[in-house]
Amino acid sequence: MPDDIFSPAFMRKLELLEIVFRRLKSGRGTGEKSGRERGGRIEFREHRRYTPGDDYRMIDWNVYGRTDALFVKEHLREERRTVAVLLDCSRSMQFGRPAKFTRGIELAAAFAYLALVGGDEAKIVAFSEKVFTSVSVAGTKSRITEIFHALRGIKPRGATDINRALKDLASGTRRSLVVLVSDLMGEDSRRSIQLLNARGYEPCVIQLLSRDEAAPRHTGRLRLKDSETGEVRRLWTEGPELEYYRVILHQFIESWKTFCAAHGIAFISALTDQPFEELVLGYLRRGGLLR
Amino acid sequence: MSFLWPAGLAALAAVPAAILIALWRARRRDIVVPSTLLWKRLEERIADSGRRRRKLVDFALAAAALSALFLATAAAGPLLRRQTPQTPNILLIVDVSASMAIRENGETRLHAALQELDALLHKIGTANLYLGTVPADASAAASGIYETSIAGLQQLRPVFRPANLEREIARILAAAANIRPFETLVVTDQPDAVPQGIAVSGVGGSVQNLFFSRFGYSDESVLFGLRDTSGGRQSVLQVLADGELIRRLNPSGDSGEQTLVVRHEALRDAAVLEARIETDDALATDNMLYAVRQPERKIRVLLAGRENQFIEAALKLHPSVEIVRSASSTPDGGGESNIQQADTFDLAIYNGITPGEEPSTAAPSHRIVVIDPPQSFEGVTVDGNMAEPVISSFPGDAASFGLADVSVKRARSIAMQGNVIAASGDGKPLIVRQKIPPNADRQARDITVIAFRLGRDNTDWMLQTGFPVFWARMLEEIGPTRPQGFAFNKLGECVVIPAGKKAVLRRLRPVEEYIKTIETGEFLFCPELPGVYEIRTESDTHLMAFNFFDAEESSQNGRKQRVDTENFFSPAAVIETKEHSLLYAAALIGLAFMFTYWYYKQ
Questions:
Q1: What pLDDT sits at residue A2?
Q2: Is B444's Cβ below 8 Å from some Cβ in A?
Q3: Of A117, B221, B249, B301, which is most buried with the most CB atoms under 10 A?
Q4: pTM of the prediction?
Q5: Chains A, B: CB contacts under 8 A, how many?
Q6: 45-104 in B: which are within 8 Å (CB) of A?
C-alpha cells in the first residue's frame, strides 16, 4: 500500500464510509444474477412456496427434507455500479498550496477506494483539453494499488475542456456516479452536466480552489497572465478592487450551487488548504456525497 | 534667500526618493494566475475607477514630492528678505468746484476723477490719505487738511462756490508743509492751476454746456445772452416773474456763438425774475438765472417849519411817501423837535425856515428842500420880493418839473450857487439846486431852494392842479435813487451788508432756506450757491440775486493729464526678514493628503 497518497490509518477510516448513490440503486434477482450486468453480490432474501414455472434449480431440497413441501429460495442480487472520477488535470490545477491537482488526486483515490470497498467499479478519468488517462478497476479493495499507480503517472497539462471530457465519458461508460473534480475555471460546462444528468448518470461536482484564488492579495499595477490560455489582463488593484473580486467569486460559486441544486446534483466547493481528512470525513459527508 | 540651518537642505534628497518610491510602487508586475476568468469580469466593472485611481496616484505623487520639498526647505529655516516700502503719506487736493459737476459721458467730472483716483490709490496700495478740498470744506481743520480714506473720498460732492484754485492749492500746500512731508496729488480739471512738480489727475474732454452769458433789462426789455459751447441744440427758455411763467421761447444758435434773446416785457411789478434753460446739458447749475427788482421802498419825508396842508396833501398822493411832521412844524415855527438822532429821511422839506432853525441837532437828511427861505439862510442871499413872477424858463433837463407859464403871487429874490431849475420871465432864479460835496465835517448835501411860497393862496390854478405831479417829479429828481431794472450779482462776488439793525438772511430761490441771523454790524455776505437771497429787518426787506456765470471755464478745460503712477512714489524702503511658516503648512497639508489616500487605499 503506497504511503504517498493515503496513510493506512486514513484508509481504515475510509472503510467506515460508503458512497451515497442517489439514483443508481442495486438490482433485484431471484437466486441468480439477473440483468445484463456482470458482477455484484447475491444475498439470500426469503423462501416461498414453489409455483409451477419456477426454476426447479432454486428448490431448497433441505427444506423439502424437513417439511415435505417445496420451497424455492429467493435471492437479492446487488448490481455492480461504477464510480467515475473525472479529474481536471489542466495547468490551472497546479496552483495552490497544496496544489489543486494534488488535492484532486487524493479525492480521486479516496472515491476509488470507497468504490472498491463497496464492491463497485472505480474509474479514474484524467482530462485537460481531452481525456488522456482512463483507468477502471473492479474487484477487491486490494486492487486500489492499480489506481494509485495510474494516478502517480498523471501530470497537469493543457487547458480545461470539461465539456469534451463529459462527452467522452458518456460515450464510453455506462450509467454511473460521475464525480467531477475541477476548479471550474474554464468554459461553462453546466449545459453538459445537465445533459449527463438527464441521461441517467448521477453527476456530482467538487470545486477545488486555492487560497490565492479565493482571496488574492496582489495589489498595484498588474499584468495577469492566464496559465492555460496565456491571455493577459492589465489591472490596477487595491483593497476595494480585491474586495470586489471576492464578491465576483462568491457570485460565481453561488451560480454553480443554484444550478446544481436545481438539478439534484451535489455540489461542494472547497479550498485546497483545508486538511484532507476534514475535507473527506467532514465536508463530503455534510455535502451528502459520503455517509 | 538665506537659511537658518542650511544642513536641512540635505533633506531635499527625500524629493527624488519620494518620486522613486512612488514610481516603484506604481510599476506593473507580471503575475500568472490559474485563470483570468474572474479577473476579466472584474476588469469590466472597474474600468472607470482605474482611471480615477491613476489620476489620484499621480496627484499623490505630486503631493508627496511637494511635501518633501516643502518639508526639506522648511527644515532649513528659510529667511526671506524683501524690500518693503514705507506707508506713504498722500495729500489729496481735490477740486470740488462747480466745473467738476459738469457731466461728460453721463457722469460728472468729479465722479470720473474720483474713479480714476480710486484706481490709482488701489494700485498704490496701503497709504495714509489726507484730503484738502478746493473750495475748502467748511468742516475742515484750520489747515484745510484732514485724514480720510478711499471710501471717504466717494462722499465728496461739488460745491457751487467759486474759488481761486491756484491760490487755494498753494494755501493747502503751505499748510501741509508744516505738518509732514507728503506725496501730493491734485485732482482737478484745470491743470494749469497746479504748481509745477505736482502730479495732476485731470479730467476733461468735450465739454457740452449751455449757459447764460449775459442778462440785462432796460426800456422794459429783457435781454438774455446764451452761449452753447458744444454745438447748436434745441433748448427751451422759460421766463418766470414771481414764479409765474410769462414767456416760453425756443432759442437756438451756433456752436460757441452767443445767442441774444431780447423780449419786450413790462415787468415793473415783478420782484423776482427767474429764467431757465431746459436742455440736455452738462452743468445744470448755470441753466438758471435770477434777477430781482427791489420792492418799492417808502420815501420818508420830513416836513419842518410852517405847517402847510397844501404840500402835505400833495405829497400824500404819492404812494411811496411817508411823511413825518416835525413837532416844530407849527404854524409859526419854533418849539422843540421830536426828531431823534437815529432817524433818517430821504428828503427834508423846510417850509419858511432853514435847516439851522430846526431844533434837532441831527442833520435829518442830506437831501433838502427849502421853501420860501428866510433871510438868514447860510450860503443863500435873499434879497427882497418879486411880485407875481411867471415861471417861464427851464434850463437844462429841468423841464420835467412841468412848470411852464405858471405864475405865483409872490417870490423872494435869491442868489445862490447851483443849477437854476426854474426862473422868472426876467431871468431871476425861482428854483435853484445846489449839490455840496462832502468835507471833513459833513456829508454831501443836495439843497434845492424854492423861492416862492407853495400854498393855495399863492399859486395859480395850474400849479394847484398839477401840484402832485410837481412833487412826484420833484421826488424823482432829488429824492433817493430807486432801483432801475433788475439787479443781480455774479456768484462769487461778495456784498457788504452795512451795519444796521438786526436782520435775517434767507435764501428764497430755488429753495427756501434759512441762512443766518445777522447781528448789528457790517457783514460780508458771500453766497456759495446761486439763487435769490433776502435780507429782512423789522422795517425793510432787501432782495439779492446771485448767478453762476463761471461756466465759461467749461470750454477751456479739455486737456487731460494722467499720473505717472510707476514713478510717482520714491519712498524709502526697509529690509524685512521673515521666516516662512507657510512652507510648514504646505508640507503638512501634503502629508495629510498622502495619509488620507493611503488610509482609503487599504
A1: 43
A2: no
A3: B301
A4: 0.42
A5: 98
A6: 45-46, 49-50, 53-54
Are the Cβ atoms of B39 and A233 closer than 8 angstroms? yes
> How far apart, in whole angstroms, are the C-alpha atoms of residue B150 and residue B373?
79
Q: Is B590 helix (H, G, I), strand (E, B) or coil?
A: helix
- Give me B187's grid cell: 485732482
Q: Which residues of A touch B (CB under 8 A)?
A: 91-93, 95, 100, 183, 185-186, 210, 213, 216, 218, 220-229, 231-241, 244-245, 248-249, 252
Query: Contact at 8 Å (CB) between A87 and A165?
Result: no
State yes or no: pLDDT of B121 exceeds 90.
no
Rounded to an integer, what distance in angstroms lies between the CA atom of residue B288 and that of residue B545? 11
Contact assignment for A227 to B35 by CB distance below 8 Å: yes
Which has the higher per-residue pLDDT, A249 or B67? A249
The distance of A218 to chain B (nearest Cα, Å) reads: 9
Among B33, B51, B597, the residue to mutate for chain A (most A Cβ within 10 A):
B33
Does B274 score more than 80 pLDDT?
yes
- Sequence-distant (6+) residues with CB within 8 A of B57 are B22, B26
Q: Is B180 helix (H, G, I), strand (E, B) or coil?
A: coil
Beta-sheet strands, E only, within B308-428: 321-325, 347-351, 367-371, 381-387, 390-393, 406-407, 410-415, 419-424
In whole angstroms, how far apart are CA A228 and each of A158, A160, A183, A213?
6, 8, 13, 15
Rounded Cα distance between B602 and B589, Å, is 20
Grid-cell match 418766470, residue found:
B240
* Of the partner residues A92, A234, A245, the one whose CB lies closest to the CB of residue B35: A92
The alpha carbon of residue B57 is apart from the nearest alpha carbon of chain A, in Å, by 11
CA torsion, points B355, B360, B363, B364, in degrees to nearest 10? -90
b/e burial code for range B152-177 (CB count within 10 A of at least 16 → b): ebeebebbbbbbebeebbebbbebbe
Tell the residue number behind the cell numbers 435775517, with chain if given: B504
Judge: A220–B35 Cβ closer than 8 Å, yes or no. no
Q: Looking at the predicted structure, is the pLDDT value of residue A209 above 60?
A: yes
3-state secondary structure string across B56-81? HHHHHHHHHHHHHHHHHHHHCCEEEE
Q: Does A224 contact B27 at a Cβ distance shorter than 8 Å? A: no
Q: How many whole angstroms separate alpha carbon B347 and alpha carbon A82?
A: 163
Least confident of A56-65, A178-187, B333-342: B333-342
DSSP B471-533: HHHHHHHHSPPPP-S-B-EEBTB-EEE-S-S-EEEEEEESS-EEEEEEPSS-EEE--SS-EEE
Please give the pLDDT value at position A190.
Answer: 93
User: Angle B341-B434-B358 (CA atoms, 0-180°, nearest 5)?
Assistant: 30
Of B42, B49, B602, the CB nearest to A248: B42
Coil/strand/helix, residue B239 = strand
Of the candidates A118, A122, A146, A57, the one whose C-alpha atom is nearest the C-alpha of residue A290 is A118
Question: Which residue has 420880493 as its cell numbers?
Answer: B385
Decide if B21 touches A, using CB distance below 8 A: no
Model pLDDT, residue A249: 94
Cell representation of residue A67: 417439511
Judge contact between B156 and B114, C-beta under 8 A: yes
- Rounded to a whole number of angstroms, the distance from the CA of A194 to the nearest CA of chain B is 22
Question: Residue B94's CB: how many other CB atoms inside 10 A?
Answer: 23
Residues contacting residue A34 through CB under 8 Å, at least 6 positions apart: A27, A28, A77
> Closest by alpha carbon to A21, among A145, A201, A166?
A201
- Mean pLDDT of all residues in chain B? 75
**DSSP calls for A101-154:** HHHHHHHHHHHHHHHHHTT-EEEEEEESSSEEEEEEE-S-GGGHHHHHHHHHT-
- Bridge partners, residue B260, by sequence: B225
Task: Tell me the three cell numbers of residue A153.
Answer: 503517472
